[in-house]
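Weekly structure sync, notes
Attendees: PL, DS, HV (note-taker this week)

Item 1: Undecaprenyl-diphosphatase
DS walked through the input record. Source organism listed as [Bacillus] enclensis. Sequence as pasted into the shared doc:
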Amino acid sequence: MDFYTIVKYLFLGIFQGFTEPIPISSSGHLVLAQHFLGIEEPGLTFEILVNTASLFAVLLVYREDIWRLIVNGLGYFKEKTPENKRDFHFIVYLIIGTIPAGVIGIVFGDVIEEHLSSVVTIGITLIITGTALWLIRNLRGSKNDGDLNVKDALIIGLAQAVALIPGISRSGATIVAAMARGMKAETALRYSFLLYIPVSFGVMLLGIKDLIEVPPAASMTVPYVLAFLGSLIASYFSLKWFMNIMVRGNLKYFAFYCLIVGLLVVIFI
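Item 1 (cont.): predicted structure, written out as tokens:
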């Protein structure tokens, strides 16, 4: 295994990990990186690997919230306290919010990958992402975890489904939808990333069959391990950084970035 291959996979792992949590579209940026740097498409195995690393990072960051939801959600069947009821309903809304992306991904996933993954398309969708972030940049909602409803879950779930298109940021789309529905920034962020868990976990499970049928070559062990670790660490610190930005309400900077990159891609490609 040559040094260049190791560096390439490590770079892509870190790059994917850093861009996954923030609202600039990790999938879109991976396509752009491969196009402009002349990096060959690493394949489905690699995508599953680095997305799983990002999933582990989200689980680590939100471990206390996840544990509380599990304990109180199960506790609701024994004792219907306000806390148990709130967290049980939150779990239900997470399930509802997962359905649109799951259905659309299964039905139209191949079509999206085949027809909506060009560099020009990503430039256009980055402009859409930037515009959406700009429109909600000053919103300050009032809804907490216990104030969500089925309509909120469906709308945010549909936004996550739209983000199956490369260049539409998953975190950006769900946060935009959540804040447009009147959620506080902290609630929007928490719901967005807890909603990421079942979708990412589902992708991981669906990919296991492919990994078993076509396992990676033994020579790729070191690049894959480094890419996984790079993505895990980058995702963790990127998410922690983004959480601080959300508290300060500085989404406009991501809007500027997406608009500028999207326009440059559309103009010069």
